[in-house]
Design goal:
Length: 204
């Protein structure tokens, strides 16, 4: 049964491709000599075991040819303070500029793949392409995450991630703004247990 909530009205919205929030991630392609950086917001973890990530690139991106050539890429999650460099990597093309030298980012060593990581980004995922799917003007690359590096000072003594130290940059599509994350609200897989009924799964 449809139920209307008092004083609440839904409206058609002109954009369909909205999801809040999304990261603004930096993808590095190529080897150490030919490394390029591209900013992407169309990105997400697609599964665990194996750990896979999907990124979507428009066909005219310089980085797209580079991923196809090398079959690998790194995903670098910037802290919010890096938003200007992130924006720059989304405004310029590797066809005409060397984004590492222009932004001052340092090429760091990956453990498994040949494509470098961005040293200044606290979280780095090393990925090997396992699938590529053409959808209209876009190409989705599905990458297996073969290694992960995290700044040592972002891991606490209990091996937990310190999200305040990572301070990941957040992108808000349609209004095109950069934000930082807010405050902790509760624990996942737990906060919902207070809602009536006792059908919640027990955690392993
Ligand atoms: C915040 C932001 C998010 C972006 N997200 C994507 C994306 O998900 N996919 C994409 O193809 N381009 C995206 N872009 C645009 C590319 O980063 C941009 O076209 C870039 O100049 C391409 O660089 P390249 O030619 O060196 O590959 C984004 C740009 C910005 C600023």
């Amino acid at each position: 049964m449809i139920r209307e909530v008092e004083n609440k009205m839904k409206k058609h919205y002109k954009h369909k491709d909205i999801l809040f929030p999304v990261p603004a991630a930096l993808i590095v392609t190529g080897d150490i000599e030919h490394a390029n950086i591209v900013t992407v917001a169309w990105i997400g973890i697609m599964g665990s075991d194996p750990e896979v990530i999907g990124i979507s690139l428009k066909h005219d991106r310089y980085s797209l040819n580079s991923i196809e050539k090398y079959g690998e890429f790194t995903v670098n999650i910037p802290s919010s303070s890096l938003f200007r460099q992130v924006d720059y990597c989304g405004l310029t093309s590797g066809k005409v500029v060397d984004k590492f030298s222009e932004t001052g980012f340092s090429k760091g060593k990956s453990i498994v793949v040949n494509t470098p990581i961005i040293e200044e980004c606290p979280l780095n995922l090393e990925c090997k392409v396992i699938k590529a799917i053409d959808i209209g003007q876009w190409k989705i690359f599905v990458g297996e995450i073969v290694e992960t590096q995290l700044d040592a000072d972002c891991i606490d003594i209990n091996e937990k991630v310190d999200i305040n130290k990572i301070d990941p940059l957040v992108y808000i599509p349609t209004i095109r703004e950069y934000w930082s994350i807010g405050t902790i609200l509760g624990k996942a897989f737990d906060a919902g247990r207070c809602i009536k009924g006792n059908h919640a799964r027990k955690l392993k």
